[in-house]
């Protein structure tokens, strides 16, 4: 299991290849990469992501460990960036490895739902006019997490 909370960009293809090569005995590998999207009105220039390093690392390690145990994963990877990100930048990546595809897909979805609604990150959208708005939790994200 690997959990990285970092400011630096990452190469999703290289990370996926490395993860796949190290997942011995797995019959299924699932990867998902999240990208910063434009705000609904297209006015966002920067997404600023804040966190408390020790708390965030521990929380992500705990949820990744839960996924490994719950779905009998061979391995799991979580990368989440912080700092100033522009639309189009990669913000996070999840990878899961298991003997069977169902477990790999479900574990990846579980991790993504957790990252979206419960991970201790605070996001602020910086708009073209210089104003800033904190990103509020969405009901749909909370509903997605309830299924787990």
UniProtKB/TrEMBL annotation:
Protein name per Swiss-Prot or TrEMBL: Molybdopterin synthase catalytic subunit
Pfam families on file: MoaE (PF02391)
Keywords associated with the record: Molybdenum cofactor biosynthesis
Reaction equation(s) it catalyzes: 2 [molybdopterin-synthase sulfur-carrier protein]-C-terminal-Gly-aminoethanethioate + cyclic pyranopterin phosphate + H2O = molybdopterin + 2 [molybdopterin-synthase sulfur-carrier protein]-C-terminal Gly-Gly + 2 H(+)
Function of the protein: Converts molybdopterin precursor Z into molybdopterin. This requires the incorporation of two sulfur atoms into precursor Z to generate a dithiolene group. The sulfur is provided by MoaD.
EC number: 2.8.1.12
Recorded metabolic or biological pathway in which this protein acts: Cofactor biosynthesis; molybdopterin biosynthesis
Naturally occurring in which organism (per UniProt): Tritonibacter aquimaris
Lineage: Bacteria, Pseudomonadati, Pseudomonadota, Alphaproteobacteria, Rhodobacterales
MF-aspect GO terms: molybdopterin synthase activity
InterPro entries xref list: MoaE_sf, Mopterin_biosynth_MoaE
Subunit structure: Heterotetramer of 2 MoaD subunits and 2 MoaE subunits. Also stable as homodimer. The enzyme changes between these two forms during catalysis.
Domain of life: Bacteria
GO biological process, one term: Mo-molybdopterin cofactor biosynthetic process
Family: Belongs to the MoaE family.
């Amino acid at each position: 299991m690997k959990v990285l909370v970092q400011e630096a960009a990452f190469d999703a293809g290289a990370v996926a290849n490395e993860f796949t090569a190290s997942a011995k005995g797995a019959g299924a590998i699932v990867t998902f990469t999240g990208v910063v999207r434009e705000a609904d009105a297209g006015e966002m220039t920067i997404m600023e992501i804040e966190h408390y390093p020790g708390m965030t690392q521990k929380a992500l390690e705990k949820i990744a460990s839960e996924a490994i145990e719950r779905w009998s994963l061979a391995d799991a990877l979580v990368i989440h960036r912080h700092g100033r990100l522009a639309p189009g930048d990669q913000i996070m990546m999840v990878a899961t490895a298991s003997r069977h595809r169902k477990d790999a897909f479900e574990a990846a979805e579980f991790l993504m739902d957790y990252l979206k609604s419960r991970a201790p990150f605070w996001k602020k959208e910086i708009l073209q006019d210089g104003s800033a708005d904190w990103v509020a939790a969405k009901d749909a994200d909370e509903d997605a997490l309830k299924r787990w």
